[in-house]
Amino acid sequence: MILILTKSINRCFEKNPKFDMTPLLGGTDAVFSSLIHSFNWNPATFLHAYSCLPLAYATRQAAGAILQDVAESGVLFAILMCKHKVISLVGAQKASLHPDDMLLLANFVMSSESFRTSESFSPICLPRYNPMAFLYTYVYYLDADTYLMLLTANPDAFHRLKDWRIRIEMVLLKSNVLNEAQRSMLDGGMRVEDLPVNPSPRSGSLSSHLGQPRPPPDSADGCKALLGGPAGLWHFIYRSIYLDQYVSSEFSSPINTPKQQKRLYRAYQKLYTSMHDRELGPHKTQFRRDDNYVLLCWVTQDFELYAAFDPLADKALAIKTCNRVCQWVKDVENEVFLLGASPFSW
Questions:
Q1: How far is CA 193 from its chain centroid?
Q2: Does the N-terminal peptide bond of residue 196 adopt cis geometry, omega within 30 degrees of 0?
Q3: Is the confidence at residue 147, as pLDDT, over 70?
Q4: What is the pLDDT of residues 212-243, one digit of tens each?
Q5: Which domains are delineated in the chain?
Q6: Sign of CA dihedral 40, 44, 47, 53
Q7: Which of 184, 231, 234, 228 minimizes the C-alpha distance to 205?
Q8: Which of 192, 195, 197 is nearest to 220 (CA)?
Q9: When comparing pLDDT for 244 and 112, which is higher?
Q10: What's the pTM?
Q11: Are 306 and 325 spatial neighbours (Cβ–Cβ below 8 Å)?
């Protein structure tokens, strides 16, 4: 509600405990419904990190360069996104945007059909940035999935931001960023079936790994064939602690229905809570086995890894496979993360 009304709504309740704020929230049902639903599928809700659209480093740099020009002109934040994934993000000097605010922004835009039909300029409150005041967000869809957000504290900046949007759009078209973003959406991201047998530092790219033939199901790790990737790996989430970004594998068999995916996310949420429990932890590793999965979590000063395996997976091989996943992410970090982004301070 702070997103829509700012925290100053508290004053109304202090003056009148029976104050009815329902009229102030008119037309926001879809926003709240979408946000609630996101807790069933979006890891950002518990990881407090954002994810990036997989792109070639040069493509992301091209997008970032023009957004940097905008930020230096007085805009607080310039954000280019494809659905819920970040293509590039630039902030003005000393301005930081919390991943939770990123989640709220993306949900606000994605759940409002009006943003898709015309350019918009809307007040919005980002609770982590400043819960007591509005920022003003210029939103424009560049194609069916990709949209630009320019945030400012100036309520009269619409026309200036529109001029910047035109310049940005020209650069993005000229540098082929929008086409590359659409191609990435179609291709998808990392898949457990494509996990390299022997990943080596800086040895390859996401695109080449995605096209790598799968090893025979029995041989590579010396174990009997299990569903999913090597050693029965079904899914993983890797969170960079320094960058406040995460990357997760695409869903595939046997976790290929919304019900199964929702159940896995709930298992991840419980695992995350357990790992970060202040009374009993924090913990560095956990290994759990039940009828549904083998779950393995590994937390270091640099990253967090959450992985789900076949319930019959061997523990030693699962650990070995997690090491391979971490190296694979390092190999392709230029493509799956927005590097050079300042860490968020909160």
A1: 22
A2: no
A3: yes
A4: 444 444 444 444 567 778 899 999 999 999 99
A5: 2-38+55-186 (3.30.450.30), 189-336 (3.30.450.190)
A6: positive
A7: 184
A8: 197
A9: 244
A10: 0.84
A11: no
